[in-house]
Amino acid sequence: MKISEFFEKEGKTTFSFELLPPLRGNSIQQVFNAIDRLKEFDPKYINITTHHSENEYKEDERGIFRKVNVRKRPGSVAIAAAIQNRYGIRAVPHIISQGFSKEETEYALIDLSFLGVTDLLLLRGDTKKLDAGQKSMDSHQHATGLQEQVNNFNKGIAYDGSTLTPPEIPFTYGMACYPEKHEESPNMESEIYYTKMKVDQGADYLVTQMFFDNSKYFAFVDRCRAAGITVPIIPGIKPIHLKNQLTVLPKVFRSDIPADLEKELRRCKDDDEAREVGVAWCIAQCKELMQHHVPGIHFYALMATESVHKVASAIY
């Protein structure tokens, strides 16, 4: 069963969430701890983020600082397989185009196919921390190019045009969408155009960037439907759990903070108070979404497992 079919089969708003791989050298147990905390809400799938390597300056034995390329988190392939093996829950690894070559992507697809992980989320990824070498490597500039590679892989066509044995179970995938417009889109019309392109080329469902104003999501869905986009559009939701996220989230994710939420967060003296405000806002936000019969709610649980648990306890 494809991920998109869960939304039709369940007949109710499904629960899913996204996790970070542990930092290099840390145990996978922290991933399992988060899943153990949230599995009571019957998650239909769990997303695992993927991260390219980054440059850091490290001091050598002579006291000279040299630039080195560091991979801070392991890839999502092994973690996805571990989750499916341990819990029997669909794991959805992120596959990103930037920071990885087309060849590296192909090997990831081969490994995932061998491991029985056939659901993906295709993304361009963050380009801000790429070095010159990563920007010039043979990779896809946009998620739609990555999408074409996955489609060809399903047909038995390698990234270099040679033939390979098609996977026994073809990959299916979702892709991202942006109710408040991607930062590089010139206008909302362009945003809808490229969103429709993703669907026309095979995306089974869409997951939104996090938002805190439901009216932005409802308006975006209406525009998508008017443009002929019929796939499920899953709201991506994050409970604010740190006071500084009032300024960090708009900067990093370009998500507007509604004035009422801003006012409440500014009154908070510390992170504990901000966490309570974030949970209360998120519960109200999710209840309204469920009243509009959204097919699912996807929680960005990154470092906020306890907040997600409180929200899910109130709405499921």
Q: How would you characterize the overall build of this protein?
A:
The chain is of the alpha/beta class and 316 residues long. It has a single domain, classed as Alpha-Beta Barrel (TIM Barrel). Helix content is 44%, strand content 17%. The chain has twelve helices and eleven strands. The strands form two sheets. Strands 9-8-7-6-5-2-1-11-10 form a nine-stranded parallel beta sheet, with helices on both faces. Helix 11 (271-291) runs parallel beside helix 12 (305-315). The longest helix has 21 residues, at 271-291. The mean pLDDT is 89.
Strand content: 15-25%
Number of domains: 1
**Order of strands in the sheet with most strands:** 9-8-7-6-5-2-1-11-10
User: What is the CATH class name?
Assistant: Alpha Beta
Q: What is the CATH architecture assignment?
A: Alpha-Beta Barrel
- Can you count the beta strands? 11
Q: Could you state the order of secondary-structure elements as H and E?
A: HEHEEEHEHEHHEHEHEEHHHEH
CA radius of gyration: 20 Å
How confident is the prediction overall: mean pLDDT?
Answer: 89
Q: Tell me the distance between the termini.
A: 23 Å
- Continuous helix count: 12
Content-based structural category:
alpha/beta
Secondary structure layout:
Layout: H1 3-10, E1 14-19, H2 29-38, E2 45-48, E3 54-59, E4 65-70, H3 76-87, E5 90-96, H4 102-115, E6 119-123, H5 132-136, H6 143-155, E7 172-177, H7 188-200, E8 205-208, H8 214-226, E9 233-234, E10 236-237, H9 245-253, H10 259-267, H11 271-291, E11 296-300, H12 305-315
Parallel strand pairs: 1-2, 1-11, 2-5, 5-6, 6-7, 7-8, 8-9, 10-11
Antiparallel strand pairs: 3-4
Helix pairs in contact: 11-12
